[in-house]
Amino acid sequence: MLAKVISCSVVGLEGTAVEVEVDIYANSLPSITLVGLPDAAVKESTERVRAALFNSALYYPRGRVTVNLAPADLRKVGPVYDLPIAVGLLAASEQTPLDRLEQALFIGELSLDGSLRHIDGVLPMAHMAQQQGIKTVYLPEVDAPEAALIRGIEVIPVPSISALVSHLRDFDPIPVFEHRESLDEVEDAPYSVDFADIKGQEHIKRALEVAAAGGHNCLMTGSPGAGKTLMARSLPSILPRLTLEEALDITRIYSVTGQLPPGTPLVNQRPFRAPHHTISNAGLVGGGRLPRPGEISLAHRGVLFLDELPEFGPHNLETLRQPLEDKVVTISRAQGSLSFPANFMLVGAMNPCPCGWYGDTQHECSCSPAVVSRYQKRLSGPLLDRIDIHVEAPRVDFDKLSDARRGESSREIRSRVELARERQRRRFASYAEGHSELLTNADMGPGEIREFCAVDEAGHSLLRAAMRQLHMSARAYHRTLKLARTIADLIGAERIETAHLAEAIQYRPRWQV
Length: 513
Ligand SMILES: Nc1ncnc2c1ncn2[C@@H]1O[C@H](COP(=O)(O)OP(=O)(O)OP(=O)(O)O)[C@@H](O)[C@H]1O
Ligand SMILES: [Mg+2]
What we know:
The protein has about 525 residues and is of the alpha/beta class. The chain has 20 helices and 18 strands. It folds into 2 domains: about 1-170, 2-Layer Sandwich (Ribosomal Protein S5, domain 2), CATH 3.30.230.10; about 195-410, 3-Layer(aba) Sandwich (Rossmann fold). The protein has a 5-stranded parallel sheet with strand order 11-14-17-10-18. A 4-stranded mixed sheet has the order 1-2-4-3. Helix 18 (about 455-470) runs parallel beside helix 20. It is elongated and about 90 Å long. The model has no long low-confidence stretch (mean pLDDT about 90). Bound molecules: adenosine-5'-triphosphate and magnesium ion. Magnesium ion (MG) binds near residues 228, 307 and 349.
């Protein structure tokens, strides 16, 4: 008897259908062969399936069993094929009806007692089912809410293999998992740090507000304990709330990497990723033999926070340059190349020198000028050039720290940021007959800058003087215009005025590389 079961594999961030064929030849010695480029975890499937069927009082067919995973040239990884192989065995040995396998997708890992376990990548797999017109998706109970984010498919949450057999035989049908009611809006989760709790540092808070409003990259420099890490961590609380489309985009990446928190089928906060500086290059930008997204993709549509930026090492920092420019990262392998989205806001924090106190008003720095300069040169010019906002964080004095009054809350700041983003969205939507993919001011190229960042005569003379006296480069000039556009958007000004330019010029880097 031959049974065919549809299952799914995830390549990059996309699901691809895999057909599991199970053939049983009864008049032979018992054996099982698995073919079709399976990796070690898939080979172990046969052992798990055998034990699971046995412990569920189901019958493991006698004779020679051949399992083929097609297409043969696609590498199969992980334990998702446990369930389809088990179902194939049951159907081929006539324990369940064959016709129930049509138009259905089976995914899930089996435990030895026959219950089903969580698998990674459910969202792209359910999406594949919807795209291919597959009506029903059978999957582990815990993964049902994630699959139910996709409309137009029937999700059957399977607790165990024996429950599935009763369902397929119509003895005891498993009810379809109900879709989540309102998916129009993403619920916002609470944030751990609020801007209201940060004392003083008005200059930095303002810089972070501008960064959030225009999607600008930002670097904070300052002595130890100034609150740089604290402020960076509070940034997600003022970023615009996620739209459903963005949330699904992010969820796909987290689903494939197995990083969705249990009980959270849909990511409901902008990502904030803060990898340690000892991270490997593959961990940061993505990679591996079967390429997986790295931190920069996990930070997609959110923040990548690199604390102690110069410690990240030249190789890691240089590989960030291309994704910072293109907003995607492409990983090439002999089998072909894969792209992962990586549209993130880079936020860096650093001390100005190895001892940390260079430029501090109260504490003396013990580094020689050569050491300071070598430390700062760890950040290359091209990288610094891609950072629009550079700010210095002085230490807060006692009076400010002990002041019990609360500052402006994150909620108020966020509403301004959201209005500014909305203005940008509308402006770019009407540009290039709606074909523009720009979302924020930070994404503007020279063409858009010419179109949207016109300055008047007074602005011109300010910029001319700044360029001459501060030795600003052409890139710095464009950066200033983009920042000024965001600052104008924050107060709803149609035109860029001199005051906006003056503030934008303030955010230039203080040391030239
Ligand atoms: N402006 C501030 N308002 C309230 N608390 C602050 C402020 N600045 C610092 N703190 C307190 O000091 C602690 C240390 O701050 P943080 O870790 O952010 O410093 P840092 O600038 O990152 O220092 P380092 O350079 O050593 O990494 C914070 O956890 C917080 O409790
Ligand atoms: Mg810190």
